[in-house]
Amino acid sequence: MVGAPDHPVFTLTDHFGNQITEKDFHGWFQLVYFGFTSCRVVCPRALAKLSGVLEELGDESARWIKPLYITVDPARDKPETMKAYLQADYPRFLGLTGPEAAIEDAKRHFRVFAQRKSNPADPDGYQIAHTAIAYLLDRNGNYLDHFPDATEGAKIIERIRFHFAH
Protein backbone atom coordinates (compact mmCIF):
# COMPACT_ATOMS: atom_id res chain seq x y z
CA MET A 1 0.00 0.00 0.00
CA VAL A 2 1.40 3.40 -0.93
CA GLY A 3 2.01 5.51 2.14
CA ALA A 4 1.83 2.58 4.57
CA PRO A 5 4.76 2.59 6.97
CA ASP A 6 7.34 -0.13 6.79
CA HIS A 7 8.06 -1.89 10.07
CA PRO A 8 8.68 1.28 12.11
CA VAL A 9 11.91 1.37 14.07
CA PHE A 10 12.72 4.22 16.42
CA THR A 11 14.71 5.24 19.48
CA LEU A 12 13.13 8.27 21.13
CA THR A 13 12.58 9.81 24.55
CA ASP A 14 9.16 9.63 26.18
CA HIS A 15 7.63 12.57 28.01
CA PHE A 16 8.91 11.15 31.31
CA GLY A 17 12.50 11.31 30.06
CA ASN A 18 12.92 7.56 29.41
CA GLN A 19 14.59 6.21 26.29
CA ILE A 20 12.01 4.24 24.29
CA THR A 21 12.25 2.01 21.23
CA GLU A 22 9.57 0.35 19.14
CA LYS A 23 10.35 -2.88 21.03
CA ASP A 24 8.91 -1.37 24.22
CA PHE A 25 5.46 -1.57 22.64
CA HIS A 26 5.53 -5.15 21.41
CA GLY A 27 2.51 -6.99 22.72
CA TRP A 28 0.28 -3.91 22.37
CA PHE A 29 -1.48 -2.35 19.45
CA GLN A 30 -0.16 1.14 18.78
CA LEU A 31 -2.13 4.16 17.66
CA VAL A 32 0.51 6.58 16.39
CA TYR A 33 0.03 10.22 15.50
CA PHE A 34 2.70 12.73 14.48
CA GLY A 35 2.24 16.38 15.42
CA PHE A 36 3.58 19.15 17.62
CA THR A 37 2.46 20.88 20.76
CA SER A 38 2.37 24.37 19.19
CA CYS A 39 -0.14 23.26 16.56
CA ARG A 40 -3.27 25.36 16.92
CA VAL A 41 -5.92 23.41 15.01
CA VAL A 42 -5.13 20.06 13.40
CA CYS A 43 -3.27 18.33 16.24
CA PRO A 44 -5.66 19.31 19.05
CA ARG A 45 -8.62 18.26 16.89
CA ALA A 46 -6.98 14.92 16.00
CA LEU A 47 -5.89 14.18 19.57
CA ALA A 48 -9.37 15.00 20.87
CA LYS A 49 -10.96 12.72 18.27
CA LEU A 50 -8.52 9.87 18.96
CA SER A 51 -9.00 10.29 22.73
CA GLY A 52 -12.75 10.03 22.13
CA VAL A 53 -12.19 6.89 20.07
CA LEU A 54 -10.24 5.30 22.92
CA GLU A 55 -12.93 6.34 25.39
CA GLU A 56 -15.67 4.89 23.17
CA LEU A 57 -13.76 1.61 22.77
CA GLY A 58 -13.99 1.23 26.52
CA ASP A 59 -11.35 0.15 28.97
CA GLU A 60 -11.44 -3.51 27.92
CA SER A 61 -10.40 -2.73 24.33
CA ALA A 62 -8.45 0.49 24.85
CA ARG A 63 -6.14 -1.14 27.39
CA TRP A 64 -4.56 -3.10 24.52
CA ILE A 65 -3.69 0.10 22.64
CA LYS A 66 -0.69 2.31 23.33
CA PRO A 67 -1.50 5.76 21.92
CA LEU A 68 1.71 7.55 20.90
CA TYR A 69 2.18 11.19 19.93
CA ILE A 70 5.50 11.66 18.12
CA THR A 71 6.63 15.24 17.66
CA VAL A 72 7.67 16.69 14.32
CA ASP A 73 9.11 19.70 16.21
CA PRO A 74 11.84 18.42 18.54
CA ALA A 75 13.33 21.93 18.83
CA ARG A 76 10.30 23.08 20.85
CA ASP A 77 8.86 19.78 22.06
CA LYS A 78 11.15 18.67 24.86
CA PRO A 79 9.90 15.89 27.18
CA GLU A 80 8.60 18.32 29.81
CA THR A 81 6.73 20.36 27.17
CA MET A 82 5.08 17.24 25.76
CA LYS A 83 4.23 15.95 29.24
CA ALA A 84 2.48 19.19 30.23
CA TYR A 85 0.62 19.36 26.91
CA LEU A 86 -0.57 15.76 26.89
CA GLN A 87 -1.37 15.33 30.56
CA ALA A 88 -3.53 18.47 30.53
CA ASP A 89 -5.88 17.38 27.74
CA TYR A 90 -4.84 14.03 26.23
CA PRO A 91 -3.60 11.92 29.17
CA ARG A 92 -3.93 8.58 27.37
CA PHE A 93 -1.15 9.58 24.96
CA LEU A 94 2.55 9.07 25.54
CA GLY A 95 4.61 11.84 23.96
CA LEU A 96 7.81 10.91 22.14
CA THR A 97 10.58 13.30 21.16
CA GLY A 98 14.30 13.20 20.61
CA PRO A 99 17.15 14.61 18.58
CA GLU A 100 16.32 15.89 15.10
CA ALA A 101 18.02 12.87 13.46
CA ALA A 102 15.94 10.41 15.52
CA ILE A 103 12.71 12.25 14.65
CA GLU A 104 13.68 12.30 10.97
CA ASP A 105 14.31 8.55 11.13
CA ALA A 106 10.90 7.90 12.75
CA LYS A 107 9.21 10.10 10.13
CA ARG A 108 10.98 8.18 7.36
CA HIS A 109 9.80 4.81 8.72
CA PHE A 110 6.21 6.04 8.97
CA ARG A 111 6.47 7.94 5.68
CA VAL A 112 5.40 11.13 7.40
CA PHE A 113 5.89 14.51 5.74
CA ALA A 114 6.69 17.53 7.90
CA GLN A 115 8.09 20.87 6.81
CA ARG A 116 8.85 24.00 8.79
CA LYS A 117 7.14 27.08 7.32
CA SER A 118 7.81 30.67 8.22
CA ASN A 119 4.95 32.25 10.16
CA PRO A 120 5.55 35.72 11.62
CA ALA A 121 2.38 35.40 13.73
CA ASP A 122 3.91 32.47 15.67
CA PRO A 123 6.04 33.43 18.72
CA ASP A 124 8.93 31.31 17.35
CA GLY A 125 8.41 32.54 13.80
CA TYR A 126 7.36 29.21 12.32
CA GLN A 127 4.70 26.52 12.16
CA ILE A 128 4.99 23.03 10.72
CA ALA A 129 2.92 21.55 7.93
CA HIS A 130 2.72 17.79 8.43
CA THR A 131 0.96 14.57 7.57
CA ALA A 132 -2.30 14.32 9.52
CA ILE A 133 -2.78 10.56 9.66
CA ALA A 134 -3.09 8.19 12.63
CA TYR A 135 -1.51 4.78 12.17
CA LEU A 136 -2.65 1.55 13.78
CA LEU A 137 0.09 -1.03 14.33
CA ASP A 138 -0.39 -4.61 15.45
CA ARG A 139 1.11 -6.24 18.54
CA ASN A 140 4.38 -6.84 16.66
CA GLY A 141 4.67 -3.27 15.42
CA ASN A 142 3.50 -4.03 11.89
CA TYR A 143 1.20 -1.72 9.98
CA LEU A 144 -2.50 -2.61 10.16
CA ASP A 145 -4.40 0.49 9.11
CA HIS A 146 -4.32 4.26 8.91
CA PHE A 147 -6.88 6.96 9.50
CA PRO A 148 -6.59 10.24 7.59
CA ASP A 149 -7.64 13.36 9.46
CA ALA A 150 -11.06 13.40 7.77
CA THR A 151 -11.95 9.90 9.03
CA GLU A 152 -14.82 10.12 11.49
CA GLY A 153 -14.38 8.71 14.97
CA ALA A 154 -17.13 6.11 14.46
CA LYS A 155 -15.33 4.75 11.38
CA ILE A 156 -12.03 4.54 13.28
CA ILE A 157 -13.77 2.60 16.07
CA GLU A 158 -15.32 0.24 13.52
CA ARG A 159 -11.97 -0.45 11.85
CA ILE A 160 -10.11 -0.92 15.13
CA ARG A 161 -12.76 -3.41 16.29
CA PHE A 162 -12.43 -5.22 12.95
CA HIS A 163 -8.65 -5.58 13.48
CA PHE A 164 -9.12 -6.73 17.05
CA ALA A 165 -11.49 -9.47 15.85
CA HIS A 166 -9.11 -10.79 13.18
Automatic annotation (TrEMBL):
SUPFAM superfamilies: Thioredoxin-like (SSF52833). Coiled coil: none annotated. It holds the Pfam family SCO1-SenC. Belongs to the SCO1/2 family. This is SCO family protein.
